[in-house]
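Same chain as my last thread, 142 residues:
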Amino acid sequence: MLLTRRTAARLLTASVLIPALACTSARGVKDGGRRAVAPDACFESSAIDSFSPVGERFVYLRALDGRQYLLTLDGVHANLPFATAITLSAGWSRVCSESGAMLAYQNLGRTVHCRILRVQAVANREAAERLAGSGATTKPEP
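reply #2:
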C-alpha cells in the first residue's frame, strides 16, 4: 500500500494522539449525579515515612515531604489491619497506579503479598478514610 507523506503523517498523529488521550492521571467517579475526581498519584518508595492500614483493602501512607497517599490493594486481606510493618516493592523506585508494584506484610509468620492497584493523593488520613469508604477508589464504569 502506497501512502503519501500527508496521509502517513495523519496516521502517525492519530496513532500517537488517541492512546495519549485514553491515558489520564485522574479517574472520575459518579457521586450523586456529579462526577467527582479522585486523582491518581505516584511516589518514591524510599520517601515513605509511615503507614496505617485503613480496613482490609486500603493503606494510608505519609511521605517524608508531608505528601499523603491512599493505596488500594488487589483484594480483602483480613489481617492487614494488624500489620506492624510493610514492604513496598516494584521493578523501580517509583510506585504508581497499576504499575505492578507490590505491598507485603507479615501474617502469622508468613509473608502476604498484595498487588497495588491504585495510588491516590489525599489531604490527610480522614480524607483517605472517606475515600476508602466512598467507593471512589475503584475504576469507574466506562
